[in-house]
Amino acid sequence: MAVTLTINQKSVTINAPDDKPLLWALREDVNLVGTKFGCGIAVCGACTVLVDGQPTRSCVMPISAVVGKLVTTIEAISEKGPNAVQKAWIEHQVPQCGYCQSGFIMATTALLDKTPDPTDADIDAAITNLCRCGTYPAMRAAIKRAAQIKKSTSSS
Questions:
Q1: pLDDT digits (tens, 9 = 90+) for 10-22
Q2: Are 73 and 8 in contact (CB under 8 A)?
Q3: Who has the most CB within 10 Å: 49, 109, 135, 136?
């Protein structure tokens, strides 16, 4: 069955069953492989994308649920170079293996869009992804730094 989705501001038609997980449609049908498979049960967050600006675990989201919505993947947030979150991630040398990082970056992007100056409690509530390497202290510092970068670039 043909399903038309809006992915990274582009209309994309996919021939797939309505219940195909968005993750696999992105990776297999659209060839956007920045979104990763981690657990397949919406726990780890490696598959996080934004759906209408909300962080969403794509491994359990059927493509039929995102028809008419805007899906944003890691590939779209840096089309003009690294965004504030990516700059902070680099500055704080967050990734170790890096596998889960696209999901963390997407969740952080959504957090900072809603909460420009997050507290530790805001970060704990919003960033529920899992990292096997345990880079949480570096991520927390990078999230706070990304907030500063976003503020400085929006005020200039």
A1: 999 999 999 999 9
A2: yes
A3: 49
CB 108 within 8 A of CB 116: no
CA nearest neighbour of 12 among 21, 25, 24: 25
Instruction: Answer for the pair 129, 105: CB distance below 8 angstroms, yes or no.
Output: no
Cβ atoms 150, 116 nearer than 8 A: yes
User: pTM higher than 0.70, yes or no?
Assistant: yes
For the chain, what is the largest distance between any 2 Cα atoms, rounded to a whole number of angstroms? Answer: 48
Give me the half-sphere count of Cα atoms (radius 13 Å) on the Cβ side of residue 16. 23
In the 8-state DSSP scheme, what is residue 2?
E
3-class SS of residue 88: helix
